[in-house]
Write a structure and sequence with these properties.
There is one protein chain. The chain has 151 residues and is α+β, with helices and mostly antiparallel strands. The protein has two domains: 57 residues, no CATH class; 86 residues, no CATH class. The strands form six sheets. The protein has a two-stranded antiparallel sheet with strand order 1-2. A two-stranded antiparallel ribbon has the order 3-4. The chain has a two-stranded antiparallel ribbon with strand order 5-6. Strand 11 and strand 12 form a beta hairpin. Helix 1 runs antiparallel to helix 2. The chain is elongated and about 55 Å long.
Amino acid sequence: MLNPLIADMLGKVIDISSKTCEFKNGLFGRCGAEAAGLCQYCGRPFCAKHGVVLDDDQQVCNRKVCLAKRMDLLRHLEYKAAAEELNEAGVCGLPGCNAQIGAQCTRCQAYFCPRHAFGREELVLENRVRVRRMASLCKHCADRRPLWAQR
């Protein structure tokens, strides 16, 4: 079992020793086993059967959306590293495009040519209110937005 005192997504310390797994069991029930972790994506407690606590203290439950976010993050970090490597050479962060950089993606912070990073409308939280704003996004980051909007 982990340290029963862990920090949630906002850094608030939570005692999970009194928490039970909230993973759904069938249509109406919940697992109810002793919590082994607190999912970093949805904030729900999970047991050892319904989630994983990794060596770097990442805690992810087995909900489909949370597993998808974990995999997306791994792909995103690879994408970002590749884009930054291309940027060091002074070219667009999209592999195969050797155009000069002209815009920065507000999400991944990599630089792209004007064809590969352009203004898109996005929803962001400002003071707990969803607000639409224009942002410069590469296609990769724009395509990720629907997944990360899910709860």
